[in-house]
Amino acid sequence: MAFQLQYPSPFLLLLLLILLIQIMPFPAIAQTQKNIALGTSLTAKDGNCWTSPSGDFAFGFQEIVNHGFILAIWFNKIPERTIVWSANGDNLVKKGSKVELTEDGRLMLKDTSTVAPIWTADAAASGVAYAAMLDTGNFVLVNQDSNNLWESFSQPTDTILPTQTINHGSTLFARRTPSNYSRGRFLFTLETGGDLSLRITNIPLDYVNLLYWPPTGTSYNGFQVIFNQSGSIYLAAQTRSIIYMISDKTVSMEDYYQRATLEYNGVFRHHVYPKSIDSNNVKAEHVAWSSLSFMPSNICTSITWYAGPSACGLNSLCKNDEEGPVCLCPHGYSFVDPSDELKGCRQNFVSQSCDEASSEDLFYFQEMQNTDWPLTYYEHFNNVSDDWCKQNCLNDCFCAALVFKEDACWKKGTPFINGRIDPTLSSKALIKVRENSTDARKHDSSTFKRIEPILLSSSAFLNFFLLFITCFLVLRILNYRKANANMLYPVIQGINLKCFTYTELKQATNGFTEELGRGSFSTVFKGVLASDNGKCVAVKRLDTTVGENDLKFRAEVSSIGRTNHRNLVQLVGFCNERQNRILVYEFMSNGSLESFLFGGSRPSWCKRKEIALGTARGLLYLHELCSSQIIHCDIKPQNILLDDSFTARISDFGVAKLLMMDQTRMATKFRGTKGYAAPEWFKSLPITVKADVYSFGILLLEIVCCRKHYEAKMEHEGQMILVDWAYHCSQQSKLHLLFENNEAKDDIEEMEMYLKIAFWCIQDNPAFRPTMKNVTRMLEGNVEVLTPPSPSSLQVQWK
After folding, report:
1. Tens digit of pLDDT for each residue in 580-608?
2. What pLDDT, on the 0 to 100 scale, is given for residue 682?
3. CA angle 689, 692, 697 (to 5 degrees)
4. Distance between CA 124 and CA 202 in Å, rounded?
5. Where is the Bulb-type lectin domain (predicted)?
6. Is pLDDT larger for residue 552 or for residue 637?
7. Are 320 and 309 in contact, with CB atoms under 8 Å apart?
């Protein structure tokens, strides 16, 4: 029988092809990752790196402030090349140094001046076939079976990334400073027993000195810290169940880069950065990493200890800010190292000597409110006045500062330990500082006691006395003339701002009869200035409790008077007579935006668009362009006025300061209007310019939709709150329900873009809101408006 050749079936050929692919080390994976072959190396110089397939991450060298090069992994597609892992933070290398994946599979870093490697990847076993920089941010050494023999994810420095875990015994070390990647003072660890903790180390040693999170008496025992693909970070048990949620802010990995970093100041923070913004425009738009969550909530008050440098170093003060802790030096002290504020502060004057006679005459006290150095004191007195306490400290050469609270006094010596400034503290600190010979703040009788014998010992005393009398009379004459001049030409020096008398304004307003509007702290009347050719003005009469301090009132009025922008209502003058505090503004003939927007007829989109842009430009000027930053705190349609040509003019700016508000990132009493006020007003969070951005977002929604932010009489309950209804229509592609049928098609497209801008402005997290500069550029069409995330303040969960 003839032999018949049997060809293999197509199925068998497919199996053979798959088998060949499995045993080939390079071609099989080359399409999903960029494999780095054995024998490949990188040299320390600018731009020399190995990138991941998408280009999101890079492994290579970065120069650190001209001090040397660090071998690191960083985000590669954003201008801020944020480092997430480093090999030699404690030992930077020179230009020309090399990292090499040797032929025998070892990854080594060598400096130009040494033979032995500076750093070597400790692979678990031999047999490395190649290396790869993955799109997850993980750099791996891989064998032929595609098993990772070493990976950067298992050797974290100060950062973890999505899909990365922290296992028992793993530790994150904070860097020393923002630009110094050597190990710093703080660590985040999951101990072998399962305890999760944030601790201070004893620099230059790594051993633990103090636990500052979780709070005393709290324990979180777990198996693993997981940073999952949804953006959540949590401590899990061995069963993968959640024991403690570190960050529950779920964010899409497709839209945002994410990282969680133990920062140099000891705060563990979850950051995000938008992916879809064109990197060529990032610097112009000031896009930066935004903070989603952090712990502890206030590191300044979390660290309380009898010894050690605490949160900010010896002799310093820690103040919790919106972006984290800020280290400050008391009056008379300065940073030991301005590039490393955590090293503390040093005294800039000679301390009081115990042998120096009457040395207390050479010192004075600088007062600091809401300030304390708790626990560390060497004497304590009850039922005493602060004057008694000051004198006691002046008589004590060891006393460097006092803390005074409720008739009790604590004496402190240097170095000061664990200092903090916090609005919850009712204590005040009194810092003892040596009087400078050129300092004119303090001249007591002791000065004259020292010169009196010299004057009396010669005829110079008579000459001095005659000279003193002559100067006194001349000054009295000059002050008299100046006072008369101020009465004839009552303005604040340097600006064209008139000082009216109360009688003059009472006559101008016909006895304050024609009321234009009323607010919580003021009433506005129409007036006519007879002294200015019958010019109409708006006269705002503040409550008698506002601005009781004359000097502060005049200072704030002067600040308001110096503002000058076409989208602001100009301040004409003021009255500061006895208890009467009155502001006089230009009169806006077309009333407020409220009556214009919600009146009988629907204004054209063209006019509404101009009003929105004008309002944004006015806010931008207040926030960034005027001589001193002004936070409005009450943006709403009633405070947007319209002039003869219907140009938007912001009113009531600067009044927040007259209401005794502190706008320096301090938590303040609520001053805004409900419905327009940002969430931070109700959470005792710091108030910044981003509060105005939120209010503008609500206002922009009203301008686009031509309806109030809340209307009780609606056909459906879901339409009552404009934010909820507008976002629902946007998500369901039903924006036509928000607009009138007679709106032009081109206008509707532009209105949809304005809605997106509004949704960005009303993000619950202030860090996600754009600045008014960004808002203005988006409204002008100079910047692409990306799709915003859902405002977390929505009250209705749409299905």
Report:
1. 889 999 999 899 999 899 877 788 899 99
2. 82
3. 130
4. 31
5. 35-154
6. 637
7. no
**In this predicted model, what pLDDT tens digit does every residue of 317-354 receive, in sequence order?**
999 876 788 899 998 999 998 888 888 999 999 888 88
Going from the C-alpha of 414 to that of each of 25, 314, 333, 376, 685, the distances in angstroms are 65, 9, 12, 10, 33
Rounded mean pLDDT, 536-550: 75
**Order of strands, edge to edge, in the sheet holding 83-86?**
49-51, 57-63, 69-75, 83-86
Q: Which two tokens stand for residue 168?
A: 């028992």
DSSP for 257-293, written as a single string: EEEEEE-TTS-EEEEEEESSS-GGGHHHHT---EEEE
On whether 98 is known to bind a ligand per the annotation, the reply is no
pLDDT one-digit tens code per residue, 24-52: 443 333 334 679 999 999 999 866 799 99
Q: Map residue 479 onto helix, strand or coil.
A: helix
Looking at residue 408, its pLDDT comes to 93
Prediction pTM value: 0.55
List of residues 6+ apart from 322 with CB closer than 8 A:
665, 685, 686, 688, 766
Kindly tell me if the per-residue pLDDT of 3 is higher than 60.
no
The owner of tokens 């004359």 is 550
Q: Tell me the three state secondary structure of residue 632.
A: coil
Q: Taking Cα atoms as reference points, which of 744, 602, 763, 777 lies closest to residue 697? A: 763
Residue 423: exposure state from Cβ atoms within 10 A (0-12, 13-18, ≥19):
middle
Q: Annotated active-site positions, please?
A: 634
**Tokens, residue 541:** 């009469």
Please give the C-alpha separations between residue 20 and each of 13, 27, 211, 364, in angstroms, as whole numbers. Answer: 11, 11, 55, 85
pLDDT, one tens digit per residue, over 413-428 is 999 988 999 988 999 9
27 preceded by a cis bond (ω within 30 of 0)? no
pLDDT (0 to 100) of residue 532 = 79
Q: How many residues does the chain have?
A: 799
Which domains are seen in the chain, by residue range?
35-154 (2.90.10.10), 160-297 (2.90.10.10), 317-434 (no CATH), 602-799 (1.10.510.10)
Give the phi and the psi of residue 128 in degrees, each rounded to 5: -65, 130
